[in-house]
Design a protein that fits this description.
The protein is α/β, with parallel strands linked by helices. 32% of the residues lie in helices and 18% in strands. Among the domains are: 1-106 and 337-368, no CATH class; 382-581, 3-Layer(aba) Sandwich (Rossmann fold), CATH 3.40.50; 627-741, Sandwich (Immunoglobulin-like). The longest helix is centred in the N-terminal third of the chain and has 37 residues, at 3-39. Bound molecules: beta-D-glucopyranose. The site of beta-D-glucopyranose has 7 residues, from loops.
């Protein structure tokens, strides 16, 4: 045999060996779990499903501390959250190892956007549209957390968010299902690596299952109510993508979905997740969400709540005390089947084996590794690089940006100009402002020869205009004016819904006062959500949206302001003109009365007091260079079901600087059995081009690209015509073509 003809055979054998080894390992774990299960008492089994918070063990309300320690020693606790650091995790693990069966604890924590090194908030990272950057950010968070004894992060949040009043949009990937699914995969891979058990990785959690982001009126924890079609089309795919990427666990959600609390939803957890999707990991409840079944009026008492939740497929009870108090009795009385309990315990134990905790329960708690990981200067460098990619240049008139490095003076004004804690954003493990670079500090580094005239103007709440005069005076003296405004870190996140998503207090008036000087005002805006800021959008010379950019935020912002980095972020959520437009998405359904002529909207699906369009559209983001799109070619005009079609085009950098563009592919299904959205994102790519460089790019379109959930929830591609759109934003389509799908 010639060498070349052997290669595929060798590859096939190798692959078979590889997956064979994994299967053998799975079977070995199964056997160990079954053997262990046989030795466990009912109480010990229930213990594996009880997750306890370490936070409640110290400080006020900690009088039951001793009881909790006793529970751990007795094997009545399976997992802890909010315990961190090598010494703490070792100390508590040692208690679990005093129990009869010595089953190790799993330590979970909300490592949402960094552990010690704070990265940009997840919505900001989504704006990078850079899957490698997102993966890397999660990988570094995992490395630091894992070295500190953490086994498991409660991230990524993959809830789609189309309502910026909902503060938790900060933790997600925005409004789009396709982008959200890609980001879900990148984050799961970043946290977990290729296989559970590596010492620099942690288990991830896809949360909150499901439809938590559809809280009515954007009020956190509120009910969600939607068609099954919408659930399957919009809200579930990122969860399915995470499951397919091997996410170790799911977390259910606080909300009801169509009248049933998600925590008690057998439809979601048992039929869909563990049934149709054949998911093998375990489901943890959200914080006390099993207990809240009583508050919802779905269970009469905690005992019934326990039965409902386990029957529905919630495996582990986070701080709800329903399982630990009632599950054993429920099983003894026959209200809950023994097999239900065993199945949940099995799922939890499998993960403990896969993480290697039975081999060495302390393997993640390593003082030397913790020391090295938490002080690795490379992590700050990467955080800066990731942060630069998340910044979105919304507006830039007459090339107000980048700032000239020869500026003599620059006024840096605003409540967030020198802020540190705010740049970290919400949901961080531990604030360490000594590691945070403010915008002023970043600018000092980037513009060493420029005199910075710093004036706060007001604090974030901006209840008083007393400081405005000083700010205006600074602006008048300076060659250029920069205003840094936005939310404080604790205005976005869990339980941080806002009915008014404008700039807080009188910040908009501070901007007006500066604009009244006649000088061009450049605005940097920070927030965990899209804000409404029409006066700034109308009058600012330039606007850079910085989200909460993390510890390296000031450096990243300065890099962009002075042009050391050419901005490349694109919005992962529509920015409305007013709260009245919410919920808002580029992916709206077609209506029978679309607006065809803005000048005549009579009896059209329109507002009489506002355009339908957002202030800034999904996918929007400017660069210091310009890109030209051309030469759209679709490899064949018509395709059959099994075919693949290539959509290709050229992209050229027509400006004077190197820059990155995010090219976006959208489709429209022209006629279908269910009315389809006006457009849907189906592909994107981020790439860098040198000035004058031109490249041919292509996207593959196949049956999957053209499919949707029909009225029977089947995933189908219906024959007919499709519009193919390529552009640099959902409102900046540069190329259009057509494709027909035949039977
Ligand atoms: C949040 C979850 C989080 C959990 C544990 C809950 O309130 O909804 O996202 O993982 O707390 O901290």
């Amino acid at each position: 045999m010639k060498r070349s003809s052997l290669a595929p055979l060798v590859a096939a054998l190798f692959l078979a060996g590889g997956s064979g080894a994994a299967e053998a390992q799975d079977r070995a774990i199964e056997r160990k779990v079954e053997a262990l299960l046989k030795r466990m008492t009912l109480e010990e089994k229930v213990g594996q499903l009880h997750q306890l918070s370490g936070r409640q063990m110290t400080g006020p309300g900690s009088e039951k501390f001793a009881d909790k320690l006793a529970d751990i020693r007795a094997g009545r606790v399976g997992s802890m959250l909010n315990v961190k650091g090598v010494s703490e995790t070792r100390e508590i693990q040692a208690l679990a190892l005093q129990s009869r069966l010595k089953i190790p604890l799993l330590f979970g924590l909300d490592v949402i956007h960094g552990y010690k090194t704070v990265f940009p908030v997840p919505l900001g990272e989504a704006a990078s549209w850079d899957m490698e950057a997102i993966r890397q950010s999660a990988a570094i968070a995992a490395k630091e957390a894992a070295a500190s004894g953490i086994h498991w992060t409660f991230a990524p949040m993959v809830d789609i968010g189309r309502d910026p009043r909902w503060g938790r949009v900060m933790e997600g990937a925005g409004e789009d299902t396709y982008l959200g699914s890609q980001i879900a995969i990148a984050r799961v891979k970043g946290f977990q690596g290729e296989k559970l058990g590596a010492l620099d990785r942690v288990m991830a959690t896809a949360k909150h299952f499901a439809a938590y982001g559809a809280a009515i009126a954007g009020r956190d924890y509120n009910a969600a109510d939607m068609s099954e079609h919408q659930l399957h089309e919009v809200y579930l795919p990122p969860f399915k993508a995470a499951a397919d990427a091997g996410v170790a666990t799911f977390m259910n959600s606080f909300n009801t979905l169509n009248g049933v609390p998600a925590t008690a939803s057998a439809y979601l957890q048992r039929d869909l997740l563990k049934g149709k999707w054949n998911y093998k990991g375990f489901v943890v409840s959200d914080w006390a969400s099993i207990k809240e079944l009583v508050e919802h009026g779905h269970a009469a008492d905690l005992a019934q709540a326990a039965a409902q939740a386990i029957d529905a497929g919630s495996d582990m009870d986070m701080e709800g005390y329903a399982y630990t108090r009632h599950l054993a009795d429920q099983v003894r009385s026959g209200k809950v089947k023994q097999s239900r309990l065993d199945e949940s315990v099995r799922r939890v134990l499998v993960k403990k084996f896969e993480m290697g905790l039975f081999d060495d329960p302390y393997r993640y708690s390593d003082a030397a590794r913790e020391q090295a990981a938490l002080n690795d200067p490379e992590h700050a460098r990467i955080a800066r690089d990731v942060a630069r990619k998340t910044l979105v240049l919304l507006k830039n008139e007459q090339n107000a940006l980048p700032l000239s490095k020869g500026l003599k003076s620059l006024a840096v004004i605003g409540p967030l100009a020198e802020a540190k804690r705010d740049l970290e954003g919400g949901w961080i493990v531990q604030s360490d402002t000594s590691r945070v670079v403010s915008v002023v500090e970043g600018l000092r580094g980037a513009l060493p020869d420029t005199r910075l005239l710093v004036a706060q103007g007001c604090d974030v709440a901006c209840a008083s205009s007393a400081g405005f005069a000083d700010a205006v005076a600074a602006a008048k003296q300076a060659e250029a004016v920069l205003l840094v405004v936005g939310e404080s870190w604790d205005m976005s996140g869990e339980a941080k819904s806002r009915a008014d998503i404008g700039l807080p207090g009188q910040q908009a008036q501070l901007f007006d006062a500066l604009a009244a000087t006649g000088k061009p005002v450049i605005v940097v805006m920070m927030a965990g959500r899209p804000l409404v800021f029409n006066n700034v959008a109308d009058k600012a010379a330039a606007i850079l949206y910085a989200w909460f950019p993390g510890a390296q935020g000031g450096n990243a912002v300065a890099d962009v302001l002075v042009g050391d980095y050419n901005p490349s972020g694109k919005l992962p959520m529509s920015f409305p003109r007013s709260v009245g437009q919410i919920p808002i998405s580029y992916q709206q359904y077609r209506t029978g009365r679309p607006v065809v002529n803005e000048a005549n909207i009579v009896y059209r699906s329109a507002y009489i007091d506002s355009p339908n369009t957002p202030r800034y559209a999904f996918g929007h983001g400017l660069s210091y260079t310009s890109f030209a799109y051309g030469d759209l070619a679709i490899s064949k005009p018509s395709m059959k079901r099994g075919d693949k079609v290539t959509v290709s085009f050229t992209l050229a950098n027509t400006g004077a600087r190197a820059g990155e563009e995010v090219v976006q592919l959208y489709i429209r299904d022209k006629v279908a059995s269910l009315v389809r959205p006006v457009m849907e994102l189906k592909g994107f790519r981020k790439l860098k081009l040198e000035p004058g460089e031109r490249r041919t790019l292509s996207f593959q379109v196949d049956r999957d690209t053209l499919s949707f959930h029909n009225a029977k929830l089947q995933w189908v591609a219906e024959p007919g015509e499709f519009e193919i759109m390529v552009g640099s934003a959902s409102d900046a389509i540069r190329l259009r073509g057509a494709l027909t799908l035949s039977d």
